[in-house]
Amino acid sequence: xxxxxxxxxxxxxxxxxxxxxxxxxxxxxxxxxxxxxxxxxxxxxxxxxxxxxxxxxxxxxxxxxxxxxxxxxxxxxxxxxxxxxxxxxxxxxxxxxxxxxxxxxxxxxxxxxxxxxxxxxxxxxxxxxxxxxxxxxxxxxxxxxxxxxxxxxxxxxxxxxxxxxxxxxxxxxxxxxxxxxxxxxxxxxxxxxxxxxxxxxxxxxxxxxxxxxxxxxxxxxxxxxxxxxxxxxxxxxx
Length: 238
Known about the structure:
This protein is α+β, with helices and mostly antiparallel strands. It has 7 helices and 10 strands. It is globular. Residues 3-71 form the HTH gntR-type domain.
């Protein structure tokens, strides 16, 4: 995968947002100036900026430059919506939190009817189960499914250290469109993992990630504490 040098630029921009030096709607330094600042190639800087654009931290305006998204949230909770970051790790950094992931399991599943009915085109899948932490406190557990056929070498990577979306981007199969379904559920087994009372409720969010070719490449079920997440919902009355 691409060198980690691009993380210098990502971390700098996220830090500037977290410290309020960069605010929603403000323009960031040009690729040339960032390359000079960090003694990096323009290509590396562009890659870093593109990653933050994919996560909807930044937006690009043709002919004008790159700006901080107007949809960032500073109220202490993760904000999920069509316009907000798909990377919960990035949003937690913006909120000033230290993020870690614990990989509970990573395995292959063969010819599962429930997954076959979702993906249609594929029969074998990876299942990646991660417990997600912010400031050493669990905020969610995530069951991520993606087709073995197009991500065969995924088993080589440590997804406690790298983003699944960085990996998918490297494989040129990153989702660029999502269908999201939200429920409120009470699941004692999930509550035990998240250190909640057995009768507590959590959000159950299902993400369907679709790539540029309109193929489903990711199906994720995420259970999240209700006091850690907000949802921004936009209604179209046309």
